[in-house]
Amino acid sequence: MGLIVYCFQACLCISEAPELKTFFIHGAGGTPAVWRLQTAHFKDSVAVELPGHPAGSGFTSIEEYARAVSDRIGQQEWRKTIIVGHSMGGAIAIELALDNEELRGLVLVGTGGRLRVRPEFISKLRENYAEAAKLIASLSVSPRADPIILDRLADDLLKVSPQVTLGDFLACDKFDRMNDLEKVTCRTLVVCGEDDKMTPEKYSRYLHEKIRDSKLEIIPGAGHSVMVEKHRPFNQAIERFVASL
Predict the structure, then answer these.
(1) What is the dihedral angle through the alpha carbons of 216, 42, 52, 195, rounded to the nearest 10 degrees?
(2) 126, CA 20 to 30 Å: which among 21, 24, 80, 188?
């Protein structure tokens, strides 16, 4: 199934080099809606809908998702492309960066070089998807987050089929690029919420240590869904990064 891409351009966008295009990739069980506060802010930005999110079938490997995204981005010159990936989307972004040395910029959000998933978490996804969605949402925000954010995240997860979300987490569990991070050559920004429980801060610090010419931003008061919980400081971090390219 082809990718569905949503483009949003608000009248009050930040100034950004016109030749650059930013692609946002959502995480496991997610949809492009998670980036609404970014695509409305950044000019020439695209939120990519991965296959099966929410319609159709998904994949069970990061490599398959990366190929699907590459097919879409392949129409754009890599030297004019910035990839922003969250969680599983970050794993996909790492794959794309390793395969495309001309990539202009890479932003890794709440992700890691390896994304192991606890077996009991996989069991919960298989046994009771509604409860699993609530659990995922609760682990995806800071304890200080507005409850409305938690409810929206849970609702978005329920729009994706249990089979697709399970496949996503199985794909994450198999993903391991720990020993390849030093091969990432493009300019990289690593972003993490201070209260991230899904991919703790140590994951981001490891990415920063291994990826040459990378910058690290830890955003206070945010959890795993930092781009939703603290969208203003998150967007500002990306602005600074883009301005440095």
Answers:
(1) 30
(2) 24
Residue 242's closest CA among 86, 40, 80? Answer: 80
Largest CA distance in the chain: 48
What are the pLDDT digits (tens) for 121-147? Answer: 899 999 999 999 999 999 999 998 999
- Is it true that the peptide bond before 54 is cis, omega within 30 degrees of 0? yes
Specify the length of the chain in residues: 245
pLDDT of residue 19: 82
Nearest to 142 by CA among 154, 150, 132, 134: 150
The residue-averaged pLDDT of 55-63 equals 96
Give the CATH number of the domain where residue 54 resides.
3.40.50.1820
The residues near 232 (Cβ < 8 Å, ≥ 6 apart) are none
Confidence check: pLDDT of 2 > 50: no
Q: Which domain holds residue 93?
A: 4-244
Rg (C-alpha) for the chain, rounded Å, is: 16
Give the total number of structural domains in the chain.
1
* Crossing angle for the helix pair 129-139 and 119-127, to the nearest 10 degrees: 140
Q: pLDDT tens for residues 73-118?
A: 877 789 999 999 999 999 999 999 999 999 999 999 999 999 999 8
User: Could you tell me whether strands 21-25 and 45-49 are parallel, antiparallel, or unpaired per DSSP bridges?
Assistant: parallel
- What is the token pair recorded at 133? 């969605």
Nearest to 76 by CA among 55, 54, 96: 96
d(CA 68, CA 175): 17
